[in-house]
Amino acid sequence: MWLLLDAAPIQGTLQLQYHISVQPPNSYFRIAHNLIVFFWGDPAENLERKPLTVSYFPDKSDKELIHSLSERDGRVFADDEPLPKFNEPDPDFKGNKWISPEGKLMK
Fold first, then answer.
1. In DSSP terms, which residues pair with 29 in a beta bridge?
2. 50, 21 in Cβ contact below 8 A?
3. What range does the domain containing 55 cover?
4. What does the buried/exposed string (b/e) look like for 13-52 if buried means 16 or more CB atoms within 10 Å of the residue's CB?
5. C-alpha of 77 from chain center
6. pLDDT at 4 over 90
7. At 72, phi and psi to the nearest 5?
8. What is each CA distance from 54 to 33, 68, 86, 105, in whole angstroms?
9. Does 38 fall in a domain?
10. Quick check: is 8 in a domain?
11. Is residue 106 domain-resident?
12. What does the pLDDT look like over 50-90, one tens digit per residue?
């Protein structure tokens, strides 16, 4: 699941909570700036039943925020930059300005 935050979180301050359970830190990570990937193992419909809360301290110095997410032909795009598919082979991913073709995060 892709989450687009209002601001980039300061490293180490991001926390996700579903209903009353804090999610383990290895279940989510920041891709770039204010874009988070959350690995949710249950059906997506379950998220409609209880709130998912994201808390963090914003990094107000990060001005290069992502403004939109969209999906085309089975691929998610952030500000029209393609994002990799997770948990499945993705030989068509050629990288973007945040992630190399090998899947390494760029600075």
1. 37
2. no
3. 2-63
4. ebebebeeeebeeeebebbbbbbbbbeeeeeeeeeeeeeb
5. 11
6. yes
7. -140, 130
8. 15, 18, 21, 22
9. yes
10. yes
11. no
12. 888 999 999 999 999 999 999 998 899 999 999 998 778 88
> Does an H or E element contain 25, and which?
none
What is the arithmetic mean of pLDDT over 15-39?
87
What's the first-to-final CA gap in the chain, in angstroms?
Answer: 22
Pick left, alpha or beta for residue 81 (phi over 0 → left; psi -120 to 50 → alpha; otherwise beta).
beta
The label of the residue with tokens 């500000």 reads 79
Q: For residue 26, is it within any domain?
A: yes
Inter-residue contact 28 to 36 (CB < 8 Å): yes
Q: Where are the alpha helices (DSSP H) in the chain?
A: none
Closest CA to 72 of 82, 64, 62: 82
Structural domains in the chain (count):
1
Residue, of 40 and 53, whose pLDDT is higher? 53
- Which residues are CB-neighbours of 31 under 8 A, at least 6 positions away? 37, 78, 83, 98, 99, 105
**pTM assigned to the model:** 0.82
